[in-house]
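Backbone-to-sequence.
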């Protein structure tokens, strides 16, 4: 038989009211006692009726997370960080992959509302920002991670993408590269736009121009990165770039595959730098130079901001910008003379 609230109270040695207060985030219960009760609930596999809670206007202790693709290691690691922090605070997570397509975003937003999630974390690109308006009207808290909505009053946690692009360009310039190219994500992705802007601005300040033809817009996949990289790298040696800046690690892996197919050596013939520092970056051949995002702190911070919203303890919206870090591995070197 399923455990009941009475079973939890008896096992924890507390009143039914205390268990109810922990479930609803109310009452003056110490964090130590709250943790003990949550552990008992987990031990007994106690599952209060989410539907009943929603119908009575109570919290369901579920959060929604929208990302472009959970198979992308960056978003998988973001989701894990969000899930871990949510779990620490007594929340479950529903994860939705949108492929950065508005029709999927809209469908999942409607689905999550039907499931009465307490709040939503948006980490996906979208063209139609009006889709978030119904959430605001229903007072469903929304926070952003790794994406920005400058026109909307929402908490936001991002890395400084412009600085990330700048760090990439400076690294390649210091190595002596002057003929470079970019594999960028779709222009609807604000983070990618800022990375490109930081990279191009740094080159311009160094007196180096970047022809439009060397900035390739891709989806976020390995296959797309490989296809675009092949087009750039199959040119004669005097014309092809000596370094590629890729706006995520997936595109960088595609570039590594393209170089291998064209029998070009990395980094002797072509340097490749990625962005994100996912787990894949350290296991590629050669290991990938990349820009690291502080994924775990970002996930923790965005959940904490959402919980503040749920507790009505947050007034001014915060935009938290975390600094990226250049991680140098074996995929970048001075250009061949």
């Amino acid at each position: 038989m399923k455990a009941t609230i009475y079973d939890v109270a008896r096992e924890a040695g507390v009143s039914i009211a205390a268990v109810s207060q922990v479930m609803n985030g109310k009452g003056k219960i110490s964090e130590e006692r709250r943790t003990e009760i949550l552990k008992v609930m987990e031990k007994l596999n106690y599952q209060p009726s989410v539907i009943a809670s929603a119908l009575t206007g109570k919290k369901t202790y579920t959060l929604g997370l929208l990302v472009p693709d959970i198979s992308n290691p960056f978003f998988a690691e973001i989701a894990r960080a969000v899930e871990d922090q949510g779990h620490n605070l007594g929340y479950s997570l529903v994860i939705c992959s949108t492929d950065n397509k508005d029709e999927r975003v809209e469908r999942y937003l409607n689905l999550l509302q039907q499931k009465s999630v307490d709040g939503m974390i948006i980490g996906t690109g979208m063209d139609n920002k009006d889709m978030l308006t119904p959430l605001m009207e229903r007072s469903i808290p929304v926070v952003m991670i790794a994406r920005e909505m400058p026109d909307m009053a929402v908490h936001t946690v991002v890395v400084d993408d412009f600085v990330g692009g700048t760090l990439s360009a400076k690294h390649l310039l210091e190595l002596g590269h002057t003929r470079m190219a970019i594999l960028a994500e779709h222009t609807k992705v604000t983070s990618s736009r800022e990375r490109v802007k930081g990279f191009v601005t740094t080159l311009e300040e160094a007196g180096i121009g970047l022809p439009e033809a060397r900035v390739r817009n891709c989806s976020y996949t390995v296959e797309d990165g490989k296809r675009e990289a092949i087009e750039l790298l199959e040119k004669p040696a005097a014309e092809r770039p000596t370094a590629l800046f890729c706006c995520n690690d997936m595109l960088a892996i595609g570039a590594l595959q393209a170089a291998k197919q064209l029998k070009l050596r990395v980094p002797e013939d072509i340097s490749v730098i990625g962005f994100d520092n996912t787990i894949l970056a350290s296991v590629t051949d050669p290991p990938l130079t990349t820009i690291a995002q502080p994924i775990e702190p970002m996930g923790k911070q965005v959940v904490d901001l959402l919980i503040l919203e749920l507790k009505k303890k947050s007034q001014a919206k915060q935009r938290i910008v975390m600094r990226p870090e250049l991680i140098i591995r074996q995929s970048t070197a001075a250009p061949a003379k």
